[in-house]
Amino acid sequence: MQRLSPQDPNIAVWPQFCVGGPLTLTVQRQAFSLTGGDFQVCDQNGVAVVICQGQAMSIRGRKVVTDSQGKELCHIRSPAFSLLRTFIVEDPAGREIVQIVKRVGFGTSMKATFMNTTTSQPTSIYLHGEILGGSAILSLGKAGPPIAQLVSDFASARHIFTNAQTYAVNIAPGVDIALIAVLCITMDVTRRARRS
C-alpha cells in the first residue's frame, strides 16, 4: 500500500476517531450472520473499533453502527426511491450527516458528502477503483489527494468457503477512521448488490 500524507485540518464526522499516525484497519463482513450485513472493523492489533449490525426485519437494509463500547454512532439506510444507489447515514437522532451516492460508470465509483466537523465546511470523499479487482482509492475531492487505500483479500479460504469478505484499509493520519469504515461498508453492500 502507498504512503498517505497527513491531513491538516482533520477530515471528520466523528473527530474522536481521528488518529495522529497512519493506521491500517481490517473491515470484515461476518461470515454467519442472520442479517447478512454485520461487519467488524478492527485496528492492526485486532481490537474492535467500529461494529456494524444489520437489522433482520429491515426492508431497506438498515444498519446500526456503534463504537467498541456499544455507543451508537449512526444508522445507514437506503432510501426507498432513488435513481442511483444511495445511502443515507443518520446520527442516532435521525438527522442526516452523510450522503453516499454510487456514481454512474465502469467499476466502483462513489461520492460521500458531509459537513466536516473540524472545519464546518461541506466536504466530499470520492471512492475510485474496482473492488472486484481487489483495490480502491478514497480521495479528498474528485481529484484531491488520496486519504485511504483499500485492498480486498479474495484469496483467503474464509472468503472462498463462507463468502465473508475482508478488506485492509490504510488510512492517512488526521482522517476519521469511523467515517472510512462506514464508506467501506456501503461499498461492500453496493458490490454485493451488483453481483446478485
Automatic annotation (TrEMBL):
The keyword Transmembrane applies. This is Tubby C-terminal-like domain-containing protein. Belongs to the LOR family. Keywords: Membrane, Transmembrane, Transmembrane helix. Gene3D superfamilies: LURP1-related. It holds the Pfam family LOR. It comes from Dioszegia hungarica. InterPro entries: LOR (IPR007612), LOR_sf (IPR038595), Tubby-like_C (IPR025659). The chain crosses the membrane at residues 167-187. The keyword Chloroplast does not apply.
